Each structure stands twice: as C-alpha cells, then as structure tokens.
C-alpha cells in the first residue's frame, strides 16, 4: 500500500490570516434579529431556558411578539407576518408549545446567554437585537470560522502548495452557501462546523495510525464531536455518527482506542434522547409525531412533514432525489465548486492509502442524501437551496483537496466554478438563508456557468493536444 503523505510545514501566519478574514466575514454577516421560523424557534428555546427555566416556548418573544414599535424587534421590522404570527416551527405537547428543533444545541447557547445576562443585566425581551446578534455569532458565526479553518488545514494536510491551498479555502469561504447560512442561528451551519472538524480529525487519525503514534486522545475527541453532531440534526446527525464510527474503527484497530471513541460519544447520545423523551415521550424526533403538529394554524401536517415515505411511486422518488441535487433548488447548483467532486471517484484506484477517507466522504454524502430523499417531499421548506445538505460541504471539500493535489490542472476549473459560486453566494447572502434566489438571477448565472466552463474545457483540451504534438515532433536535422 502506498504510504500516506505528510504535510510540509507552512507559516502559521497564513492560517491566522485565514481565520481573521473568516471571523470578519462572520461578524459582518450576523443579523440582529431572527430571520424566520427556523432561527426564531431555536432562539425561543434558549430564551425560555434561561428566563423561565423551561423548554416550553409559549411565552417567548419569538412566539408572542411584542407590539412595541419603539423597542428593538425580534424579527425584521418589514416582515409584518412574522411579527403577527411569531415562529411556527413548534409542536404542541400536553397543551404547551415546544420548539421542533433538537434540544441539545440550545443548552450551550443558553449557557452563553446566562453569562451575558449576569454580565450586563440585559434580557432577550429588553434587547432582542443584542440577544440575536450574540447567539448568531457564537453559533453559526463561530461554526463558519471553524469550517473555513478546517478546510484550510485540510489543504495543508493533503499536501497542497500555498496557492492551491488558498484557492481551495477561498472557494469554500466565498463560493458556497456556508457564508449565507452564517447570517442567522441554524442547526445546519452548526453541523457544518462539526463535520469539518471531524473530517480534519479523521484525516489526522489516519496519519497518526500510519506513523504508529496513535493515543486515546484523538479517538476520544472524535467521539465527542460525533456524539454532539448526532444531537444537532436527527437526519444528518446519525449518518455522520455512523460513518465516523466506522472509519474510526477501521483506523484504530485496537479495542481500547475504539472504546475511548464510544465513551466520549455516549453522554451526548444519552442527553439528547433523555431531553427528547422528556418533551415528546418518544425516542424518535418529537417533530416526527404527526399528532404534535395538529394545532390551530399549523402549516404542517402528515403529508408535508419530514419523516416517513410519502412518494406516490418509485419514479416520483427518483425524480425528487435528483431534484435535490441538480434541480431548481438543487444543492450542487448552489455550491458550484462541488461540481468537480465526482471526479474524485477516479482516485479510488490511484490513492489506496486515502481510500477509507474517500469512502467516508462518499458514504456520508450518499447517506444523508438518501435519508432526506426517502423521508421528505418538501425540498427542505422555505430556505436557500437544500439546507439539510449544508454539512456535506465538509466531506466534499476533502475530496476536492485530494483531487486538486493529484490533478493540479483542475485548479483553473476550481477558480472558474468558485468565481461563479461567489456570485450565487453573494445573492444568497443578500437575501438570507430563509429565502430562495429569484429565477431572474439564478438561471442566467447557471447559463453563464455552463457556457464559460464548456469554453474553458475546450480551450484547455486544445492547448493540451497542441502541447502533445509539439512534444512528439522530431527535432530538426542539423
């Protein structure tokens, strides 16, 4: 087997500069209000935990919105419907409303909010703008910075030169939907940060195992991250956990190392299911119980809720599954650099040492896509592209890093797709993660991508053929 490549040393100031730019982008992006039902529901749980000591959100300002126009508002001031209704991402259990989001991620945010109240004396009701801004920065904003930093380190660890590494990182930071989703609190940005940290950690686990210097600390850290990721999203989270466990078991080989992984993950799994059972009396996600969604004015029912097979036929399922990737709201069409990722399938024969990590990336992406293709028909609701797939940027960019190292001529393709991706990301950033990009913008951009990419490939192929002819031409006689 070909040995794994070890990264060359690079100046630390480059990584520090990348993190500084990512932090600046996160700060500029964060909004001082909830942008829709999704983040309003999460913020309502955090507020209720600290201010009322309960997970029930009936009295939250994000459910019963104050009508004082002189005070800062928890929702955009120009959105009359949100101000009138509050968040509708909620379930009704035993006469009380709860968020339909997984409960565990609200706990660390509640800890931050409690510290803020103790330090300033300001509550969410008094200053909802500062409350929303703070929690956006410490959740989605921080997750964005972590994800950008991890992609940058993946470029280093896979052996990319400085220019290639920065091109890869820039295409992720500016050319995907990672930045638009950093504007508001959401589980998907949070899970992207976790998935990026896990992908980097697993790559380093492989190198440590190859060098014979693997201790229990790295498996334990990966177990804690995978366990927390499980609690963040009950669609993508379990797939992330299962794939990480399988790869860790392959790389660790020794029972005590795998035991460290499992023991570090168990508290998170136990906490999630204990809280979920306390609220909904079920081990399955509480929002998958149709009865809890039957409350006056609920926009959800058994037909449009996520969970369970609702496709009329196998053909409809296949069309919907393809639409999630390449349709009008398709994930690949909104994260254009990932259009190169399928080319990484050809690396399975060329890079046997990294084959387990590439299989991990393929299994994670395929598993999450299949889970949501089977269990939904609503294209992730009202949001930018398919929000459920945002964490898949992490394994996708690992594949891109390896591909760029093995086929450096693809740098031009990455720069072209990343440039067009920056246009899509800028449109998404301007509107926010809870709105779709308008047809008048999206289709001209996609046409531009196809035409320019096709033209670039034709030019490259012609230049390559010309170079081959020049190389084979015999030298002139003296």
Description of the structure:
This protein is mainly α and 478 residues long. Helices cover 61% and strands 2% of the residues. The protein has a two-stranded antiparallel sheet with strand order 1-2. Helix 2 packs across helix 4 (106-120), helix 6 (162-175) runs parallel beside helix 16 and helix 11 (314-326) crosses helix 14 (355-375). It is globular. The mean pLDDT is 91.
Report how far the terminal alpha carbons are from each other. 48 Å
Strand coverage percent:
under 5%
The number of helical segments is: 17
Task: Give the low-confidence spans.
Answer: none
What's the order of the H and E elements?
HHHEEHHHHHHHHHHHHHH
Please state the average pLDDT score: 91
- Side by side, the strands of the main sheet go 1-2
Radius of gyration, CA atoms, in whole angstroms:
23 Å
Brief summary of the model shown:
With 478 residues, the chain is mostly helical. 61% of the residues lie in helices and 2% in strands.
């Amino acid at each position: 087997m070909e040995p794994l490549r070890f990264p060359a040393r690079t100046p630390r100031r480059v990584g520090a500069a990348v993190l500084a730019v990512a932090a600046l982008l996160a700060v500029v992006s964060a909004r001082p209000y909830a942008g829709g039902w999704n983040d309003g529901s999460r913020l309502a749980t955090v507020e209720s935990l600290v201010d009322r000591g309960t997970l029930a959100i009936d009295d939250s300002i994000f459910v019963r919105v104050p009508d004082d126009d002189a005070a800062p508002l928890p929702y955009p001031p120009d959105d009359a419907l949100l101000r009138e209704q509050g968040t509708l991402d909620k379930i009704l259990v035993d006469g009380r409303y709860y968020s339909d989001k997984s409960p565990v991620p609200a706990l660390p945010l509640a800890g931050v909010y409690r510290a803020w109240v103790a330090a300033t004396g300001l509550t969410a009701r008094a200053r909802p703008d500062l409350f929303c801004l703070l929690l956006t920065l410490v959740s989605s904003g921080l997750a964005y910075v972590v994800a950008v930093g991890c992609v940058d380190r993946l470029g280093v660890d896979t052996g990319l030169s400085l220019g290639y590494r920065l091109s890869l990182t820039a295409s992720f930071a500016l050319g995907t939907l990672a930045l638009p989703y950093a504007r508001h609190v959401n589980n998907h940005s949070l899970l992207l940060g976790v998935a990026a940290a896990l992908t980097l950690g697993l790559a380093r686990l492989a190198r440590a195992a190859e060098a014979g210097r693997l201790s229990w600390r790295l498996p334990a850290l990966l177990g804690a991250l995978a366990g927390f990721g499980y609690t963040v999203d009950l669609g993508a989270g379990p797939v992330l956990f299962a794939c990480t466990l399988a790869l860790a078991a392959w790389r660790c080989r020794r029972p005590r190392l795998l035991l460290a992984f499992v023991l570090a993950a168990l508290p998170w799994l136990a906490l999630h299911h204990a809280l979920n059972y306390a609220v909904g009396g079920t081990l399955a996600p509480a929002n998958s119980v149709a009865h809890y969604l039957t409350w006056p004015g609920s926009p959800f029912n058994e037909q449009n809720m996520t969970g369970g097979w609702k496709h009329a036929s196998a053909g409809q399922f296949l069309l919907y599954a393809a639409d999630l990737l390449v349709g009008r709201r398709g994930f690949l069409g909104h994260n254009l650099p990932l259009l190169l990722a399928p080319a990484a399938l050809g690396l399975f024969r060329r890079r046997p040492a990294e084959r387990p990590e590439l299989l991990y990336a393929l299994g994670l992406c395929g598993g999450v896509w299949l889970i949501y293709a089977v269990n939904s028909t609503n294209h992730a609701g009202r949001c930018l592209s398919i929000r459920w797939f945002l964490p898949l940027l992490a394994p996708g960019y690992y594949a891109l890093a390896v591909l760029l190292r093995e086929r450096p001529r693809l740098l031009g393709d990455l720069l072209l797709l990343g440039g067009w991706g920056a246009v899509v990301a800028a449109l998404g950033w301007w509107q926010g993660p809870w709105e779709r990009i308008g047809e008048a913008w999206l289709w001209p951009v996609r046409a531009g991508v196809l035409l320019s990419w096709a033209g670039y490939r034709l030019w490259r192929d012609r230049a390559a053929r010309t170079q081959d002819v020049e190389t084979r031409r015999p030298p002139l006689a003296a």
